[in-house]
Task: structure prediction
Amino acid sequence: MVLEGTARALLRRVAAEQAEARVPSLAAAVLRDGAPVWSGTRGEVDGAPPVPGTQYRLGSITKSMVATLVMRLRDEGLLDLNDPLDKHLPGTPVGEVTVAQLLSHTGGLTAEPPGPWWERTPGVDPATLTAALDGTLKHRPGRRHHYSNLGYGLLGEVVARHRGVPWHQSLREEVLEPLGMRDTTTRPRAPHATGYAVHPYADVLLAEPEHDAAAMAPAGQLWSTLPDLCRWAGFVARGEGSVLAAATLAEMREPAVVEDGDAWAGGYGLGMQLLRHRGRRLAGHTGSMPGFLALVWADPADGTGVALLANTTSGLRPAVATDLLDILDACEPVIPAPWRPAACDTGLLELTGPWYWGPAPYVLRLRSGRELSLGPAGGHGRASRFAWREDGTWVGLEGYYAGETLRVVRRPDGTVSHLDVNTFVFTREPYDPAAPVPGGVTDDGWR
Result:
């Protein structure tokens, strides 16, 4: 739990948002180490403050959960992210778009399905939805980020075809139950908030309609509670091995596309929205359906996160989420964990220390086990961690060298000659003439 002063500052920010943005009701929570440490509500639902069990609509946060199901299929070998949609959902006029492009909203599909505004009208079955598509892509697949609710309707059907059950049944069995999210449902159950539109020029409300979105449900159907949304935030930050491998979750959080060009404040991974804020790299998703707004952000670096639910069509200011994180950081900054020696392969100590790529100094460090890190001594340039492989090489885990091979090349007497990182030669001295530097080193040496 947080200190009393922190709690008051957090509650004041939520109260100000509810009053100033004229939100009928608002429920928010902040997390540390993947678990909630504070929650608060303002406003009323049916004449009383919302309770922990009060449901709100999640909107597009649903997409992250559907994406988790797709990644489970990938990990089971049932599909490849580079597969065209037609391989798993044949007969659509957009079958050339890949699974990865649908997950990251880079397939070039239209944002909304054909027909009346799907969020405010009863949905149609998958066959009717696909039959209405004309196959027209708004952009060349892979060219740019173009958010597509339609794409997630199609992904939900891919899940259903593979599992042989509706996507939401698969979600409950494979994701929600293991995470303890028992109050997350496809349709509202009591108690739940009514979704409202707030008149722009008067303090009056208009109830928004709510329907089963059917084939479009994977784009934004789910209802949930604040405690359940905190469980989801904890999963985004810390993972749960029974639901998804840690490496797969990390893959979902990697930026596949940037939404805002050179600024790179916001991006999208595989079913995850990404946000950079004051040194944090947050993953999660926002949600919007008529009458409801929701969001969840989590920082996997330290497990800090925020979850928020509101029953209003518009008006909630996005900064409220990051403001809550800023208040938590300002009032109760994270105390660094104590340094402790790591269990590592001391036989690799001879590799550590300075290396040179041409004239540029780098430092190789030994991490836990046999993991290595190689980065520029000055802090600017290509850096990566490398994981040991059974064949005696290392593979890059991130950055420019992700997926590339690091080899330790030894002389006939067993001493280390140089490092080969995907043809780049790193030597113990700048352009060491005793090492096989590509192109050779002039006999004149340094002058």
In short: The chain has a mean pLDDT of 96. DSSP finds nine helices and 20 strands in the chain. The chain has two domains: 4-331, 346-427. Residues 125 and 305 are 36 Å apart (CA to CA).
